[in-house]
Amino acid sequence: MARYLAFVIVVGLVVWCVLDISRSSDEERLGVHPLLWMALVVLVPVLGAILWILVSRGRRAAARQAGGGSTGGSASGGSSWTPRRRTGPVAPDDDPDFLRKLDEERRRREQGTGDGSPTS
Questions:
Q1: Is there a domain that residue 94 lies in?
Q2: Angle at 64 between CA 36 and CA 77, to 5 degrees
Q3: pTM of this structure
Q4: Residue range(s) defining the domain that contains residue 8
Q5: CA-to-CA dists, residue 46 to 11, 12, 33, 87, 111, angstroms
Q6: Residue 58 has pLDDT above 50, yes or no
Q7: What is the pLDDT of residues 24-40, one digit of tens each?
Q8: Within a domain: residue 87?
């Protein structure tokens, strides 16, 4: 059972490293092509993964300390995922224009200057 657990951990580490390499910047990879990093991680799993983690986290920490901002990692050096702003449609209750129009319509109804259409 311990062998299987070790195998699953190594496979998970390799998959995580390959995904992290694919999302990394050229600076984080020390200018090395991502396919070379991936080949190193896949062909020499434990050593390659450890090397990738040390190199990429070291570069990200140095960039943060130099004032270069975040390069994708969290402050703890965890995931390289960064939240992105939504670009999709805005919910009606979050849309300021929609809320403004509703407020204007409500005021017109209260003042009795509505458009004459029946209300339900």
A1: no
A2: 65
A3: 0.51
A4: 2-65
A5: 10, 11, 20, 39, 74
A6: yes
A7: 888 888 888 999 999 99
A8: no
pLDDT at 104: 92
- Above 70 in pLDDT, residue 72? no
> What DSSP designation does 112 have?
T
User: How many domains does the structure of the chain reveal?
Assistant: 1
Distance CA 116, CA 88 (A): 35
Structural domain includes residue 90:
no
Cα 69 to chain centroid, rounded: 15
Find tokens 């209750």 and name the residue.
93
Alpha helices in the chain (DSSP H): 2-23, 34-43, 45-65, 96-111
Q: Which residues of 61-85 are buried (b: 16+ CB within 10 A; e: fewer)?
A: eebeeeeeeebbbeeeeeebeeeee
**Cβ neighbours of 19 (radius 10 Å):** 13
SS3 24: coil
Domain membership of residue 58 (yes or no) is yes
